[in-house]
Every structure is written in structure tokens, then in C-alpha cells.
Design a protein that fits this description.
Length: 480
């Protein structure tokens, strides 16, 4: 039988804030375990939570960035369960009145993760709510360590509609979501630090059937690649089960990345009853439409919108736009440079091939780069005007990179301006011909390749400054 997969994702993203969700402990990764704690985030009886304003604003921003409706009234609820990562025996979360609902995320338009074309598609976002992260448990064989530094870190849960159909679509959704949340300053989404985590829900149905099949949830995928693999694995496993006539039960599975397979964790019968109820320690959160609009105007341009604008305004390819928008600071830097130049496409080439290369080699962040965007525009325009050639341009660029001096100053101080004067170029050509009689003979005897050698000699004599087009023309003329 031919099946179609139905996939919905639940993504957790830690919000980047100065302090935790309900106390003033720092929200910081990497500290010595259990050093960033207080009676509130350790769940002592009698303590009271104080909501973090910055986290709530960022939750609203996350919703606006994904086209959600923002609730004018929302509230926090207690989700009760017993586990060592949860000192209070309940997690403060949001149940039926989350901050954000009915949003969407656009994916596709280029190549998917597996290399096939991925058509454009809109994936619905059911809801985004804010909660507190539990402590981090680390299993050491015979015992388990609990680090409460993570306990109480603000955490967004972003739940998608079951709108995805392939592993590539799930992968694209995750990548797109991460990109938007990073651009929006919501969180760093570093999966290795556990700042972004994802659960995959997947079911199969016979092609053509409308009703969804039984959903399997795969918990805690620790990379986008693992999510992609887990979807592909489940599509085969569930199809085999269904073809064998088995009835699938709703269950929760884990993912073993080493073995490349999912395994059963628990079935629906063991599902928790969380006994949600409104947290009596916390008031409702209310926003007026004006307050929501005031947050909306602080949103940055989203990466996809930026790429489309760059392709349109600067005449660059989608591929180049993707490279340039991978890092938001690089994107803004390039945007400023291209906006100042009459040759934005060249500015893109220089940014990608020279600037990003030098930044990578010298492990410098764009924020610490000595070249100002306007200065790259200046260099590119000097080349376009024929004041210097491309080769000299590269030397000038590396000097700019080291010192932050403008291209025109370097060109003037070092006398690097291209020699376009035919008389002067002719003199270089004559010198090269006189100095290399053997090669001249070879050329005249029909070895056309020698011309490149002679060209190189002329450029050397001119210290790279001769106009290459004139050199070539004059060489050919004089060797006739
Ligand atoms: P639960 O109550 O079990 O948490 P939800 O209805 O909240 O289930 O859905 C959780 C996630 O599972 C959502 O991302 C949703 O899109 C997805 N989902 C729901 N039903 C299915 C299904 N039949 N197949 C695949 N995904 C599904
Ligand atoms: Zn605390
Ligand atoms: Mg759910």
C-alpha cells in the first residue's frame, strides 16, 4: 500500500533573557552545576514567582514573527507531575490561554535537505506558549546528576499543525523557525546547549485517505538531522506495521542516533494526567492592541523577506542571498555596503569571496571587522571605475582588513592606481619583449600559449598596475 506521512512538530526554545522566568537568578548556560539557583527555582515551599517582563515580551515577539494572533488576555497554569527535574512537582506553563495562536511559517522555494526541490508551502502554527524549563538531568550509569541552573529558564513551546508530509519539510520548518527566532533575538537556539529541542509527531495514512492515522510521538530529537532521519525511519517502520495488518497504538518513542532507529518509551495508557489548573500565585497577563502594536514595530526584517529584497534590489542570486543572510550581522553589514555602492552585485562577490574568507581564517567576528561597509563600497567602485584592477584590489582589500584604512587612501599612498595611459603601458610591453627573446621566438613560431607568460612579465614589470586589457592588445599588436 502507498502511504502518506502526516507530521506535526513541538519545538522548545529557550528565551534569551538576563534572568530566569520567575526569579532573579541569571539565565546563563555553562556555569558550574547548581550555582545559579535560589529558593524560587529550587521550588522551596512558601516562595512566590515573579514573572519576567522581558521573557513575556519576547514570547509575544515570537508570535508576531510567525504571524500569530496575540491574546489580549492570557494566563499561567500549573502542570503537575512528579520527577526529579521538577522541584515543585509542577511546572508553570500555559494551558488553554497561551500568548500566541494561529500563526504560520513559510518553507521551501529552494532545495530541501535531501537535495530534491522543495516547493513553497505554508505550515500552520497552532500555538506558542511560555513556560519554565525543568532542571537538566545527566545520567552517569549508576547515578543521575540534576543541574538546577536550567530550572526556571524561560522556555517557549511552539506547536505546529500536522501540515508537513516529508522529512524534508520537517527539516525546512525547523531550520526556518530557528532562523526567525535568532533574527528576532528571541533565543540563540544552539541545539548543542539544549537551547532548541524538538519532538516529532508522525502518522501514516493511505494515499487519498482524509482521516489521519494513529500518531506516534518521537521525543527529544537533538539535531535537525536526527529529526530528518527519525521521520524517514518511522515512515518505513509504520508502513511495515500497517502492511502486516497490525493496528498501531498511540505511543511515545525515543530516538537512538547511533543505531538510527526509534524505540518504544511508553504507550498512551501510561500517559500523564497533568491536572492543569490556573496558578493562583500569578495574575492574568493583559495586552491592549496598542501595546501589541508597539511591540510589532520593534520587529526586524525577516531573513526570507531580506533575501527577496536583496535579490530584487542588488541583482544577486538566491544562493548568494542565502550565504549572505546566514548570519544576521553579516546580512546587515552587506546590506549597508551594497546600499552605498553603484555595483551591489560586485559588493556581494567581495563580501562572500574575500570578507567571509578572511573573517573565517582570522576567526574574527563581523562586529570586530575593521573594514566599514562604506569602505568596501568605495573599493568596489574604484575597481569599477578602472582606477585599480581586480588583482591590486585584492591586495588593497587585505590591507583594509588589517588596518581599516580606506581604499582610496591606500591606492594614493602606495601609488597603486592602474596605468591606463597607452604610452606607459607600451613601454612596459617593450621591456618585456626585449627581456624575453626566446619566448618571443616561440610565440612567433606558433606557440600561442607563450602569450600568457609574456602578459605575466609585463604585469610584473608594471608592478601589477598596467591595465590588463591594454597589455593584451598591445602585446598582440607588437608581436605581429
Ligand atoms: P497531544 O494532545 O497528544 O499533545 P496535540 O493535538 O496537542 O496532541 O498535537 C501535538 C502535535 O502532534 C502537534 O504538533 C500536532 O500537529 C501533531 N499531530 C496531531 N495529530 C497528529 C497525527 N494524527 N499525525 C501526526 N501529527 C499529529
Ligand atoms: Zn532562582
Ligand atoms: Mg500537546
Amino acid at each position: 500500500m502507498q502511504y502518506e506521512a502526516v507530521i506535526g512538530l513541538e519545538v522548545h526554545i529557550q528565551v534569551r533573557t538576563k534572568s530566569k522566568m520567575f526569579c532573579s537568578c541569571p539565565n546563563r548556560f555553562g556555569a558550574e552545576p547548581n550555582t545559579l539557583t535560589c529558593p524560587v527555582c529550587l521550588g522551596y515551599p512558601g516562595t512566590l514567582p515573579v514573572p519576567n517582563h522581558e521573557a513575556i515580551i519576547k514570547a509575544v515577539k515570537a508570535g508576531l514573527l510567525t504571524g500569530c494572533k496575540i491574546a489580549e488576555v492570557s494566563k499561567f497554569d500549573r502542570k503537575s507531575y512528579f520527577y526529579p527535574d521538577l522541584a515543585k512537582n509542577y511546572q508553570i506553563s500555559q494551558y488553554d490561554m497561551p500568548f500566541c495562536t494561529e500563526g504560520h511559517l513559510d518553507i521551501g522555494g529552494g532545495k530541501g535537505f535531501s537535495g530534491n526541490d522543495l516547493p513553497e508551502k505554508t505550515i500552520g502554527i497552532t500555538r506558542i506558549h511560555l513556560e519554565e524549563d525543568p532542571a537538566k538531568l545527566t545520567h552517569f550509569g549508576k547515578f543521575t546528576g540534576a543541574d538546577y541552573n536550567r530550572s526556571g529558564v524561560p522556555l517557549l513551546e511552539i506547536v505546529s499543525e500536522p501540515d508537513m508530509r516529508t522529512a524534508d519539510e520537517a527539516y525546512a520548518y525547523l531550520t526556518g523557525l530557528k532562523e526567525i527566532m535568532r533574527y528576532g533575538g528571541i533565543g540563540d537556539c544552539d541545539m548543542e546547549k539544549g537551547q532548541m529541542r524538538c519532538d516529532v509527531n508522525i502518522s501514516l495514512r493511505p494515499v487519498g485517505q482524509k482521516e489521519f492515522g494513529t500518531k506516534i510521538e518521537i521525543k527529544n530529537l537533538n539535531s535537525f538531522r536526527a529529526a530528518h532521519r527519525a521521520v524517514e525511519y518511522e515512515m518505513i517502520r509504520q508502513a511495515e506495521e500497517l502492511d502486516a495488518g497490525h493496528v498501531l497504538r498511540q505511543e511515545t518513542r525515543g530516538w537512538n542516533d547511533d543505531h538510527g532507529e526509534t524505540y518504544l518509551m511508553r504507550t498512551k495508557e501510561e500517559a500523564h494526567d497533568y491536572r492543569y489548573f490556573p496558578d493562583p500565585d500569578l495574575m492574568e497577563v493583559r495586552f491592549t492592541p496598542e501595546e501589541i502594536e508597539a511591540i510589532r514595530v520593534t520587529l526586524p526584517e525577516l531573513p526570507e523577506a531580506m533575501r527577496r529584497r536583496m535579490m530584487q534590489d542588488y541583482g544577486i542570486s538566491r544562493y548568494d542571498a542565502e550565504v549572505l543572510t546566514q548570519d544576521q550581522d553579516v546580512a546587515n553589514w552587506f546590506d549597508r555596503a551594497a546600499g552605498k555602492s553603484r555595483n551591489p552585485k560586485q559588493v556581494a562577490n567581495w563580501t562572500i569571496s574575500e570578507l567571509l574568507r578572511l573573517l573565517g581564517e582570522s576567526k574574527i567576528d563581523i562586529a570586530d571587522c575593521k573594514i566599514q561597509p562604506e569602505q568596501l563600497a568605495g573599493l568596489v567602485d574604484l575597481i569599477a571605475a578602472g582606477t585599480i584592477n581586480n588583482r591590486i584590489g585584492k591586495d588593497v582589500f587585505s590591507e583594509m582588513f588589517q588596518t581599516g584604512t580606506s581604499a582610496d587612501v591606500i591606492v594614493k599612498e602606495k601609488g597603486l592606481a592602474q596605468v591606463n595611459d597607452d604610452g606607459a603601458v607600451a613601454a612596459f610591453v617593450d621591456q618585456a619583449i626585449a627581456a624575453n627573446p626566446a619566448q618571443v621566438e616561440q610565440y612567433k613560431a606558433g606557440n600561442a600559449k607563450v602569450l600568457q607568460f609574456l602578459m605575466g612579465q609585463v604585469m610584473k614589470i608594471s608592478k601589477g598596475k598596467a591595465n590588463p586589457q591594454s597589455v593584451m592588445a598591445l602585446l598582440k599588436e607588437k608581436l605581429q
